[in-house]
Design goal:
Blueprint (H helix, E strand, L loop, with lengths): L6 H8 L5 H16 L5 E4 L5 H6 L8 E4 L2 H16 L3 H7 L5 H13 L20 H7 L9
Antiparallel strand pairs: 1-2
Amino acid sequence: MLDPSHPIAKLLKDDRRYKIDAYAFVFEALNFAHNQLGMGSERPAEAETESEEEETEEPSAKEAERHLTGQQLCEAIRQYALEQYGYMAQCVLNSWGVKSTGDFGEIVFNLISIGQMRKTSDDRREDFDNVFDFETGLRESFKIVLPES
């Protein structure tokens, strides 16, 4: 069960569009992108505002981290969804409130707003819009692959 004091618990209460599963899935897909697909370039993360940057004296806030663009994350999400849910990927995502790639942008920027993800000065919410159509990207591109004997 989610601790009520956790920032995501407050986020879920304030923005009811997406289920917690959608947020967890984005974190899992980001991990999949880095570890399985080898995606992400080393870039320094930037704080949202200068005042936040001044308050953050931790070295980790200034260190380089692996970064994906919105389009790259959407592609990783597409591949991960197909791997996890196969032909049902679109149905599963829809059940969490996710109907388009733009919804992933909303989820990511919600997570940025509560300090659970970071962005660079180049990142925009709109980077996630219309990256792929769910029908084409999830249903029509699904392929059944039989194991080789």
